[in-house]
Amino acid sequence: MPPSDPLLDLAVRAARAGGVELTDRFGAPATGISRKSSPTDLVSDADRASESAIVGMLRAERPDDAVIAEEGAASGGNSGVRWLVDPLDGTTNYLWGIPQWCVSVAAHDRAGARVGVVHDPLRDETFTALRGAGAWHGERRLEVRRPPAIAEALVGTGFNYAREERARQAARLRALLPAVRDLRRLGAAALDLAWVAAGRLDAYFETGLAPWDWAAGDLLVREAGGVVHEIDSHDGGPSLILAGPGDLATTIAGLLKDDV
Predict the structure, then answer these.
(1) Per-residue pLDDT tens for 166-220?
(2) 117 and 21 together in one domain
């Protein structure tokens, strides 16, 4: 049975509240679109509405916790608990009507990551993890897939918004693509990580992720028996996040090491 925990229960309810805001707006003409880090890095009123619903619930029930959210909501706290919120991971997919996006909510305490929730509103799938108690999809406990060889691995990735980093990512694809079964670029990092935990992807890697992008997925993968590495760039670029079963992650890291 999935574990019960007050922080995890709150994270699930908050993620679902954000999901309601998103599904209510999905497919309608987008409003309030603006750009963030680059002309292709977009935010809309849907992101803001989801964040408001999530952060409002967290602050109402846990006023002494710290909160960091992608679209700017932030507050300090003195409880030792810090929430990391991505109210809409996969904004470009969302705005183009592509049904591959999610809500990500994680909580850290003084010992590190404690709970992680990735909620896919359109499929009504909620992936949850509690430190030391496993990762779950509904009543099913999750376990990373262990392909017998890298040549049989289905690997997910994502692309940065900065042109310079996208060029570096293209070099990594040239190094990895001939070695694996295939690559998938689905467009929502948190959901990619949840799918690694669920065995739908064998591994996942991407550079330039923000903490809220991978905080919940990180715990999901670890609690499903996998590893998550944060690999620093050797030339000052953004670090690379690599997730999967330990042996496969080690092999992929070896293939990518000259291009990180």
Answers:
(1) 888 888 888 899 999 999 999 999 999 999 999 999 999 999 899 999 999 999 9
(2) yes
Domain containing residue 32: 6-141
Question: What's the 3-state SS for 24-62?
Answer: HHCCCCCCCCEECCCCCCEECHHHHHHHHHHHHHHHHHC
C-alpha span between 82 and 114 (Å, rounded): 10
- Residue 34: strand pairing partners: 43
In a domain, 59, yes or no: yes
pTM recorded for the entire structure: 0.94
For residue 21, give the H/E element and its range. helix 6-25
Which tokens in the block code for residue 257?
Answer: 């090491």
Q: Can you say how many angstroms the Cα of residue 86 is from the centroid of all Cα atoms in its chain?
A: 8
pLDDT tens-digit profile of 17-74?
999 999 999 998 888 888 766 666 668 899 999 999 999 999 999 999 999 998 776 6
Is 157 found in the same domain as 129?
no
- Same-domain status, 154 and 137: no
Residues 111 and 198 in one domain: no
